[in-house]
Predict the 3D structure of the following.
Amino acid sequence: MRLIIRAQKEVNDLFDNDNNQKVKDDLTEEEKEQMQEVKEDASGEEKEQKQDLDDHSKDPADEEQENDNEQDSAEDESEPVPESSAVSEETAEEADSHQQELERLKQEAQEYEEKYLKLYAEFENFKRRNRQEIDLNNKYKDQKFAEDLLPVLDNLERAMAIEGDNDSFASLKKGVEMVYNEFLNIFNKRDITVIEAEGKEFDPNFHQAVMTEPSEEESGIVLEEFQKGYQLKDRVIRASMVKVSE
């Protein structure tokens, strides 16, 4: 390689010398081109030789530093970006916040459901009581009607108990009996009936004993009825006022 460089230098000195200008002029174009190629090849080889010398002349410490720099760069590229870590932590915190909010909403929903069920049960009980009350009122709706007419029936019974001999009194009594029977028919249509008492065993649910009397009858038998009793369906409107045997 050194021989080539040296030859190239001699050629250059030969053609660069002003004294050899005539020799240069006498060369043909082809010879000039060949000389130029030789010159360029020599220049290229000279540059490569110089580069090799520079590479060999480098300090081993510098090469080690360059290798360390390259390794540090690789490590820097492989290390995770702090921003990504921050984003991950923020995402985790946001997920925890959403989970807590979800749990709170679930608890509220459960509380509202319990309140709803409690109110629904109370409302159903109210409807049931209201329905029972309506049915009861419909069943005994004629009780007030009967209670208002009972004093009239009592007076008619007292009038029929009076005795008389003339024809006018008999006709009047007959008229009173007709009115009384008409009242009883109206009562029967409304399921209002007379409570049987005289000769029956005393029943405190239907009879009211106002006096007792020794009798040949067994004890607890109704001997006399002072006031009739009435009942509407299965409800006693007024108990019979009676005398009971001892």
